[in-house]
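Hello,

Following up on my earlier ticket. Below are the two sequence lines again, exactly as submitted.
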Amino acid sequence: MANEQFFSRHGGATSPTSANSIYLGVVLNVNEETGKTVVNVPQLQIKMSIERVVNVSKTNPLQVNDKVIVGYLDGHLSTPVILGRATYRDDGALDVAHIEPLSPLLIGLAALDQVPILDISANSTKKVAIEALAREMPQFAPQTMFRNAIINGDFRINQRGWSSSTASTTYGFDRWKAFNSGGTVTMSSQSFTVGSPAATGYEAEKFVRLVSASQSASGDYAVLQQPVEDARTFANATITISFWAKASSGTPKVAVEVAQVFGTGGSPSADVNTLGGQVTLSTSWARYSVTMSVPSISGKTFGSSLNSSSLNVNLWTSAGSTFNSRLNSIGIQNNTFDFWGVQVERGSYATPFERRPIGTELALCQRYYETVNTGTAWNTPYVNITGSTNGFSEFITYIKFAVAKRTTSYTMTGYRYDTGGSNAWWLNRSGYSWTPTPVFDIKTINGCRAYAGGAGATWVAVEAFPLWSCSDEL
Amino acid sequence: MYFIRTISRPNEPTYTVIMRDAAYGGGQIPMDEANADYRAYLSWVAEGNTADVWEESSNS
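Thanks for your patience. The regenerated structure is below:
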């Protein structure tokens, strides 16, 4: 095996003079019998396709703007490979003895059981480099995980137990809401047929459906939205919004927009709506992506309320002529739109959809909504609390959230465990039960006090089922 | 759709919250513009609606 080294330089300088510069590269071994080249990074096995072969030498270093080679992981044409970094030594030679692999999480983008052959048999010099090593470093290296700013983009989390709604601005799947004006817009939970996901290799259980009906007026519209907390998110950056989608008929459009909302309280700046573009759906699942620049927030004023600003990601499925200039005229579209796998990330590429561990995804959701509402099940030990009334004939307790909330101004709802009805608790003491409306106060981001009066007696033992939900959505 | 509820408790300041009707999901909404539910309530009021006074027994 003979060693060959291939590098591209990040930063665009014309000569390797600084030992502190960061370079990106990969060490390749060439099997002289087969003419095949294998990637010589321990534990890393990647199948790549070659776009162009370039000679690399000390006197002919690759430049950032060179049109060289892009490697892709396992056919994911939007996923350039970044394998490692190296520096030049003081004598100007590449310090190939100290290749520093990038994050293992990044390498984890590739399945390790892929074919470990990089076929450059047609290349007499057997020297290759990867353009994206330099060009895409800023996109991938700092954010190998948690690339996706969208929470619950695959609609796995449904704490509300929601199935369908028509009311505008109602949240359904965690972090997702639809809003509309005019006609009837129904957002609903739908199930994939097992084995028939939106994309091969991305099995999922649920997707969201938006049905627009009877819209006709110039001011009518329908939008699927997720407000991403903090208007500073991606400000003055290039982002790519991607999702899988299909329609029930025809080739309707979806307008992809972000809205920078500067919060509440005080005198925040007006919203800034930026259209990323339109995509045209078909009746089959396909992945679409829009790359756009998010405006700078220079000169903007944020509202004084805590964590109240947001970057709203809007998927418009219908909009009358009132919105023509804003959305480039998608028009009224009474149709059925299905969405799955929504991702918003920094950079110019739609990388593979990021599926975080479900416990992590749930925790991300619970910053905005959390519930201990087990419905009408009897014998629910988690919430069966035995306590006593206080000197005011109240049953009083403290609710501790699993995840700290966005603000201290959240909406608390109590539920009866016997009927599931809201705005009440079911409480019981000897010979007496009552269903008062609980009060929630002394709110912190970590929890709140809760009490319910009407016991009719002080300092007596009480059995309580204090079910609750906390909504702190944007 | 909404009710005004005054919270009064011994040795503590009295304050007011908005209660959303159970038919609309229920909930105790703080009078704070930072709360999206409260902003929805303000919009509802702006349409000319008036909240009722919450009666403790109304949902028991």
